[in-house]
């Protein structure tokens, strides 16, 4: 094995782990129901959120995605969950792990107007945590459980999941 101190900067950077980065928002209404979105390109429901743009910080990404997908403005976002997802081996050269940051978007008044992003979002709904968990990918349901616990306790959660898209 080559000692990393003898590598050129280019060789050292080539060995660094590359990861996809996504950010999402937990938003609830006054009765505790969770906002989920149904993307037009996916079978499962998901949280408001998406992939981070170059030069963007995680909270900025979460706020931008919430605004783009729902028309809702994020207040001060607080980190609830960081999820590390293993790479998906069958993605070949694109197989990289992913990091998902989930932020607390707080509570919105009942009946808050949601303006869906027509190009990506087919539907939305406010669901009890149990119903939301049933609609989400199992790993995203774990993220929901971790986020609700982190919201309650004030301590962010770190999760590790097998690779999946969603």
What integer is the average pLDDT?
91
Catalogue the unreliable spans. none
CATH architecture: Alpha-Beta Complex
Count of strand segments? 8
As a whole number of angstroms, the C-alpha radius of gyration is 17 Å
Strand content: 25-35%
CATH superfamily: Nucleoside Triphosphate Pyrophosphohydrolase
State the helicity in percent bands: 25-40%
- CATH topology: the name is Nucleoside Triphosphate Pyrophosphohydrolase
For the biggest β-sheet, the strand order reads: 4-1-6-5-8
Q: Please report the distance between the alpha carbons of the first and last residues.
A: 36 Å
The dominant shape is globular
Largest sheet: 5 strands, mixed
Number of helices: 4
Outline the fold blueprint:
Elements: H1 9-15, E1 20-29, E2 34-39, E3 45-46, E4 49-51, H2 58-70, E5 78-85, E6 98-108, E7 121-127, H3 129-135, H4 138-153, E8 157-161
Parallel strand pairs: 1-6, 5-8
Antiparallel strand pairs: 1-4, 2-3, 2-7, 5-6
Helix pairs in contact: 3-4
Descriptive tags:
single chain, 166 residues, alpha/beta, Nucleoside Triphosphate Pyrophosphohydrolase, five-stranded mixed sheet, globular
How would you describe the overall organization of this protein?
The protein has 166 residues and is an alpha/beta fold. Helices cover 26% and strands 31% of the residues. The chain has helices spanning 9-15, 58-70, 129-135, 138-153; strands spanning 20-29, 34-39, 45-46, 49-51, 78-85, 98-108, 121-127, 157-161. Strands 4-1-6-5-8 form a five-stranded mixed β-sheet, sandwiched between helices. A three-stranded antiparallel β-sheet has the order 3-2-7. β2 and β3 (45-46) form a beta hairpin. The chain is globular, with a radius of gyration of 17 Å. The model has no long low-confidence stretch (mean pLDDT 91).
